[in-house]
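User: Fold this; tokens only.

Assistant: Input:
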Amino acid sequence: MQTYECDIVIVGAGPAGSVAAKYAAEGGLDVVLLEKRAEIGAPLRCAEGISKKWLSEIGMEPDPKWISAEMDGAIIVSPSGHTFKLDESQAGNEVGYVLERHLFDKALAEQASKAGAKIWLRTAATGVIKEDGLVTGVYANRMGEKIAIRADCVVGADGFESQVGRWAGIDTTLDLTDMCSCLQYRMVNIDVEPNYCEFVLGSAAPGGGYVWIFPKGKGIANVGIGVQGSKCKSGADAKYYLDKFINEDPRLNKGAVLEIVGGAVSTCPGLEETVTDNVVLVGDAARLIDPITGGGICHAARSGMYAGKVLTECAKKGDFSKEALSTYEKMWRDKMEDKLWRNWMAKEKFAALSDEVLDDLVLAIKESDISEVNVYNLLKVIKEKYPDLVAEFEDMI
């Protein structure tokens, strides 16, 4: 078996992996970035919506090449059809861009390559190398050839189905209530608001999920659904509910489907542990996905940046122990954990609400005076009308 050596091996070339590779390579480390597929960013497994605010944090400037449409705001739709329309000044993190995600991911990988990272496509990690109980690299299959890649640290950026964490002994298990089954169609010949992302609440997407419509211009939109895992009994429930919604919506039911994508999304407040000796988990592999929205691109990129910076410092000291890598864990927790935890608790509450209560909540929010609509401010409004709903986490509002 052929053996390669490097400082850092990163498994997965999505946003988390590519940003981690960029920052580690900029720090002077020899980085190998593995991607099991033949193309970065494909197949698509994402609604493609992002906010604008965080791109500059990771050194990205908006580029028309990977922006499909710029949003003016968002529309929240209650189960009975009450709508709350937000413009950009109010919409906070719910407004931004709808991407051409495969091009966005390629742009991030290009930055990593320019920083000096090596990118290996069609290279699937098959296990971790362990010596004296410590992870010292990964085994992989590269273009049909079995290889060993030895490294000072392994970064698991291998998404929701992360195997790196499990191989390394990190508990990545999830309860069915903390995952959503998602399905999305790219539809054409439909008639939706062109510059507003739409979120439909209630029993249209059981278990606290929602239906989304993200327009991409010229009568094209991503139309998708997330259904809580515990509500999926037959294995195809997401398709059933999405088809039902589309068939009942005159704006959509005469459209055509050009693409179908599906997958699962975690809706927990992050893993209890995201590092161990010589191993770091980033992005979806660390369960850093917003439990309310299911959005993960921002958290993935940020966590990749944090990991890349910490790995650089660890290399200077020659120490990739769990204790040394815990600086990464502190960074992401300081930035994200409170919000992830609050949104997880809100998700747990919303999942149990009836359509009637959700109707009342949307009307209450519509009638309130909120300068910026985000989960934190929405919970404050809900507290005024339904204090019992938020009593368990009132101190976080």
